[in-house]
């Protein structure tokens, strides 16, 4: 029995919705399904405005433009994240300043942020790793005191909360991903969540290639023209059609993934107690499940052991601060000891919506067997 690392799925009316979009003769962006996605996100993620994009990467790039990030600016973020978190700001000429993560949540260590602030700092980009919220009270308080923007990279955080507030709706801007590796999917896809009303109009323009096309269609202006910088950040209506069917089942998807992660956690607890592995202490929205091995070599051996049994487990991230582009475009603030340690020993186990508990058991048994031989 092959157990893949992840598996895209359909859960409801995805294909039916796509057929309807085709029959409605509306395939480009901002049709009926896209509008339904916007309403769903505004309601369930409690933001002022939600805009579908072709990726979370696009939403992050829009955020950098909206916050007027320019050459010479600095943006504080963790090094333990996906490249898009940094790339969006580097594209505008800014310098990412990397801060270490907390060993418990693997989120940016909020106690190290203030030391990274200089008079060039413009924004903080907390990444909610595994859908577990960063310490947003502290981060928002620091941002307010130093007059900085907060852009939440909530790529992994659909439906997750921090103290009763949806992630992505706490900073001025939040970015979600619907990439096929995330919880709720549309192949490629993302959304920009806007919590500062003053940014909404400009976001519409940036998303529409720098034109006032949306205002023109609403009859607010009499010509449609180039008014600002921008790009083509919107998603096709076909993506909206697929995505809306998934959003209708978002809670069900989340619950199923949480259940899988809880099962891993419970069954692997004995290995944590004997000191072989370390487990996460929060499950978040069930986006991912990881274990930490004692050494990098042990991780390599465990991956090979699982692979022999046709179980596919993977690791991430190569820290941005020591990657070729990170060295060229960014710099660190303080030491990166937790980031370095975690990136060498973290192993992600298979999690996907359709994963059965017997598949979870197969993975657990293979890991137990590996440690029984040690
Ligand atoms: C997946 C991911 C992204 C990028 O999302 P895309 O939709 O593929 O552009 C950005 N940041 C984090 C933390 C992610 O996990």
Instruction: State Rg.
Output: 21 Å
> Hey, roughly how much beta strand do the residues contain?
5-15%
The hetero molecules present are: pyridoxal-5'-phosphate
- Indicate the percent of residues in helices: 25-40%
Beta strands, count:
12
What is the H-and-E element order? HHEHEHEHEHEEEEEHHHHEHHEHEH
Poorly predicted tracts of residues: none
End-to-end distance? 25 Å
The average pLDDT score comes to: 97
- Strand order of the main beta sheet, please? 1-9-8-5-4-2-3-11
User: Which class of secondary structure composition applies to the elements?
Assistant: alpha/beta
Q: Indicate the overall shape.
A: globular
Outline the biggest β-sheet. Answer: 8 strands, mixed
Count of individual helical segments: 14
């Amino acid at each position: 029995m092959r157990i893949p690392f992840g598996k895209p799925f359909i859960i409801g009316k995805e294909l039916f919705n796509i057929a309807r979009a085709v029959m409605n003769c509306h395939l480009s962006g901002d049709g009926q399904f896209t509008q339904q996605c916007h309403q769903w996100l505004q309601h369930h993620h409690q933001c002022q405005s939600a805009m579908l994009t072709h990726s979370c990467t696009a939403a992050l790039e829009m955020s950098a433009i909206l916050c007027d990030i320019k050459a010479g600016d600095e943006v504080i973020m963790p090094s333990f994240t996906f490249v898009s978190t940094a790339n969006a700001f580097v594209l505008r000429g800014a310098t990412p300043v990397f801060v270490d993560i907390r060993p418990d949540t693997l989120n940016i260590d909020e106690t190290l942020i203030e030391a990274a602030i200089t008079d060039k700092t413009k924004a903080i980009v907390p990444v909610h790793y595994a859908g577990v919220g960063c310490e947003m009270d502290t981060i928002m308080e620091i941002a307010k005191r130093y007059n900085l923007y907060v852009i939440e990279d909530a790529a992994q955080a659909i439906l997750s909360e921090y103290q009763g507030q949806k992630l992505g709706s706490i900073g001025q801007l939040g970015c979600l991903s619907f990439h096929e590796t995330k919880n709720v999917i549309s192949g490629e896809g993302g959304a920009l969540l806007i919590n500062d009303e003053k940014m909404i109009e400009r976001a519409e323009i940036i998303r529409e290639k720098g034109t006032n096309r949306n205002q023109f269609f609403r009859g607010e202006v009499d010509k449609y023209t180039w008014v600002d910088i921008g790009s083509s950040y919107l998603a096709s209506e076909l993506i909206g059609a697929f995505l809306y069917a998934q959003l209708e089942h978002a809670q069900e998807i989340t619950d199923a993934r949480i259940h899988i992660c809880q099962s891993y956690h419970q069954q692997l607890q004995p290995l944590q107690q004997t000191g072989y592995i370390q487990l996460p202490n929060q499950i978040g929205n069930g986006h991912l499940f990881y274990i930490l091995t004692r050494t990098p070599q042990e991780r390599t051996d465990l991956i090979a052991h699982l692979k022999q049994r046709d179980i596919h487990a993977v690791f991430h991230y190569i820290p941005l601060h020591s990657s070729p582009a990170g060295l060229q475009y960014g710099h660190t603030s303080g030491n990166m000891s937790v980031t370095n340690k975690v990136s060498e020993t973290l192993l992600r186990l298979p999690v996907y919506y359709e994963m059965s508990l017997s598949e979870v058991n197969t993975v657990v048994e293979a890991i137990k067997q590996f440690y029984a031989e040690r």
